[in-house]
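Input sequence (475 aa), recorded before submission:
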Amino acid sequence: MEMSKNENMLRSMLEKQRTAFLSDGFPSAETRIDRIDRVKDIHIRYKDRIVETLASDFGGRPAGQSLATDVLTTVIEVKETRGKIRRWMKPQRRKTPLFMRLTGGRAELQFQPLGVVGNISPWNFPVALAFSPAIGALAAGNRVMLKPSEATPQTSELIKEMVESAFDPAEMAVVTGGVDVAQGFSQLPFDHLVFTGGPEIAKHVMRSAADNLVPVTLELGGKCPVVVGSSADIKMVADRVIATKTLNSGQLCLTPDYIFLPEGTAESFVQEAYKVLGKCYESLLDNPDYTAVINERHWERLKGYIDDLEKRGTRVEIFNPANESFDSPDKHKLPFMLPIEPDDESLIMQDEIFGPMLSIKTYHSLDQVIDFINNKPRPLALYYFGKDKGEIETLCQRTTSGGITINDCGQHVACSDLPLAGVGNSGMGAYHGHHGFLQFSHSKAVYRQGLLSMGKIMRPPYGTRKVKIFESMIK
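Predicted structure, token format:
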């Protein structure tokens, strides 16, 4: 009975948006700009509550981080999108073959909104990843339905309140609830569906979408490698890698998962990493600047990686400056850990870590590194540190990842004119900036015939003269 109620509610919401979309026609640039401006405005109005609610859902999350990653990023994306919408909307001329031009034919692409875009967003950056795809969808002229994560229930309810304060349900709507609601949501006949999360759940989402031939955008993460060249400055590497790895305590799809260091440099990296961590934290357990693991289930999962490493006799460097106890799952926090040369069969090298751990491996040749990466599922990002242009070119050409940042981590995603995109196991499709506009638009081919019709030439009868014309064009 409950599932039936959920299904009726979801389908009614979708039908309301689709009816409004068809009734109103394609929205003007002014309407689209107004809608994304409202996204910006609710983030500004609710910024304090966003910070407070995220801290409550996580059981500890830095206010400064939440302000930057879940409020500021959205505001910036709106600002960088709004001024480009008119240009993106303009039809683009396309070249026609000579014989079509001679008959007066003209071709163009028109960018048509799809209709209703659904978004199943994750818990790690629950506000930012609910609204970032929505900005692209609204800019493209669509209506939007959001299903935020049940793992951050207070934040999901806040997102619902934010949207309802500024949008008619026919423009943008939010549905909250557990796994059953998410399953029902994924089965709706959207015009496009976005999912951010793990590959295993993505397979279920994709199967559900396939029943209605709904196209999907999947952003799935993966084990993002760091490759450090012999020309790199280890101090700089540690500073920039640890800066990214500590963000959200490693609960980030683009976070470095393991690092390949030249043989003989692992100890230097560990020492420099400790220095960086020491500047960030004097203690961890009750430190408001140290993000908690999202919940007890994920805490137990991460604890299992360490137990597995201990059984294998793997050396693990543990950063715990105040010598605190992390045995209790109540606060679901863990110290920052650096496993040294973990076995390839260990759990931490099989699964995406998504926590405050960074595996360290060493290598003697770049070919060895490339073979290792290419024998793993394709990651969302790859990072290289060094000055060797040949190594950079080799990694770009011989490995496949969603994106690459050179001499830093994750910064390609901060560039709004680059897509956030996975490949293979790390996802499909893209959004951000113009890529989001195109992802959520139908690029419609439009051809305008001139004085003569090509159909007259192509139709029977096929006399000698027509055949000779066709043969003359086959060269």
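Checked by second reader. The CA atoms of residues 419 and 432 lie 5 Å apart.
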